[in-house]
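As a warm-up, study this chain.
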Amino acid sequence: MNISDLLRFIESRNLFSRTDNILLAVSGGIDSVVMAYMFHKAGFHFAVAHCNFGLRGVESQEDDAFVRILAHKMHVPFFSEKFDTENVAARRKISIQMAARDLRYDWFEKIRQNNGFLYVATAHHLDDQVETFLINLIRGTGISGLHGIPVKHQTIIRPMMFTCRQDIEQYAKFNKISYRTDQSNNETKYLRNKIRHQLIPLLGSINPEFSRGLTETVRKLSEFEQIGNKTLEDWCCHALKTSGTDQTVDIKLLLNTCPVEPFAWALFSPFGFNETQVMNILGCLDKESGKVFNSASHRLVKDRQRIVISKLEGKIAERIVKISLFKNFKTIKSPLQLTFKRIGSIQPYEIPASDSIASLDFDKLQFPLTIRRWQPGDAFYPLGMKRKKKKLSDFFIDQKFSLKEKEQTCLLCSGHDIVWIIGHRIDHRYRVTSATAEILRIVMTDFILTS
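Now compare it with the structure written out below.
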């Protein structure tokens, strides 16, 4: 391993250019210290950042001092921060390792933005790649967990991913580079250390080129993952249709994909549905409509021939709106926009055929009129059905209302009677007849519900 190897790798992976300013994450261990020496020898523009997690007492302080001196010898800027890692982990109810990772990367990003660094470089190498792959494999993972550690991800770069730990150790020995040793890295009670000190040497004894071979496999898996993701993305763009504020998916189209599970996951997971919910959604597609699934941000309804996905909004108020008696005209804008007009003579009045216009016998109405949501048990006499009362729930089924349409339905009531399912059907008892002396004409100009 030498500087030319580093330079070729950086160029081949387009990690950064020679004029870019890079922030190096240096713990004081052999990997990050060798990375700093190679950057210094290559003449790159860089600074050093060190995290003191306060987990090893005096040794943590000595690590900080060591890296500080290293940066001073290289004449590069030095950044250091001490974290109360244990308290952060307890407060967030996460592991100390996870807390340290979050604190580290959040702090690196803050320094990067505030000081004009283009990238943050960490000293992950090929053995780290292998360890991460094996950890994910042992714990169980999808394709995304098998591509390991990316060489470049957003503002994080890993320029040492061309070499392995053995080569780094030889480089440090040949160049007489001093570094700090964290004894906890030798404790096999941690899964990563057990893999590092026991499993990888065993696999290496079977195949000396195991680490490099697995790294190449990981690279190929990553490439195939990119191809697969692009295929799924294109299919989702084709499958998702916009219907007003909703997204819809044709059930037959989804079921005709093979295998259906990855397509369903790509389709529904961006809306916040987890793996169990996605499998349950697939399990209900050949059953009766009306099944509802909720994520933190969206609701999914299995309709007859399609799936409807709606963004969850704040619950619309269940208040009752009262319409007082008026002389000629009246307009309301909430919970929907309606215009009321009294018409004194039915001649030559022609009843509009539109469902968005109701023509009612004014003298049969009891003021104040009220507008409210429908409730289970509500019933009315649909226009044309003189003596047959019908439950609204049955009316909704006959009209093939979706769950969302039912939830958005408002009723105009006179006393306890429903006189108009707004936007759909009036009550037969309140229709205009030849005996009607005065008409109340109501025009629904905007069926957008407000809270």
